[in-house]
Amino acid sequence: MPPSLAAVPERICIRSGFVVRPPNDRLGPALPRLIKSRGVQLRLELLMLFEAQCRQAPGSAVRNVRRVTPHADQEYASWRELMLAPTAPTLGTDRGAGDLRARQITEAMRAMEEQNLVAIPRDPGGRRRYNSLRLLSEASTPEERTPYGVPTSGVFIPREFFTNLWLFALTDTELATFLAISFLRYRFPDRHRTGGVFLRASDGKDIFRLTRT
User: Fold this and answer.
1) Which of 43, 144, 197, 205 is deepest in the core (most CB within 10 A)?
2) Of 109, 90, 92, which Cα lies nearest the Cα of 100?
3) Which of 75, 67, 64 is nearest to 106 (CA)?
4) Distance CA 147, CA 125 (A)
């Protein structure tokens, strides 16, 4: 079942390596590479991090317990039931909104796999077994693919960002800007308390590698 409010931590922690990487890092953070005009990969990544921290304590390893689509004997709601995304059924086909949302989710999972954020096992025929997906660290790289564990430090964002559905109300660019500002708040807490922090367009491009903020 979806987590109750009582099970939701007050803050959700995201490793800073997801948002910013050293200037000499060749690929940079995963965040800007998830920003797309279409697709739900950034939202799904953040939703998975939120869901993991609702079930596991900091420092704990995390196992995916949700299927892509609903199933009669499921213990937890499926990703399709948790993900809010617009769908436009194609006239003249038998694909409904639920089918299209499931396809959005599997496409997002493939995009996340390309960025080393999840590992999707294959069956002997090479088909992806999406329901057996393993979440990797949001700071993973092609050289270091680390299984996800709930972090104890990093960029903290309030739970209301998820429980009030801001995750689904903002565009990808707005989500990225919010995470960049959240990193600055984490990096410069005294400045945040006394006068606030802000993100200049040049810093968004040079530091966070965001082409639009």
Assistant:
1) 43
2) 90
3) 67
4) 25
Amino acid at 168: F
pLDDT tens-place string over residues 159-199: 999 999 999 999 999 999 999 989 888 775 655 556 666 66
pLDDT at 132: 95
pLDDT in tens, 16-69: 999 999 888 888 999 999 998 788 999 999 999 999 999 998 888 899 999 999
Tokens representing 147 are: 């299984």
The gap between the terminal CA atoms of the chain, to the nearest Å, is 36
DSSP state of 134: E
pLDDT at 1: 43
Produce one character per residue of 24-55: b if its CB has 16 or more CB atoms within 10 Å, e if not.
Answer: eeeebbbbbbbbeeebbbbbbbbbbbbbbbbe
Helix 172-187 with 41-55: angle, nearest 10 deg: 50
pTM assigned to the model: 0.88
Q: Is the distance from CB of 11 to CB of 158 less than 8 angstroms? A: yes
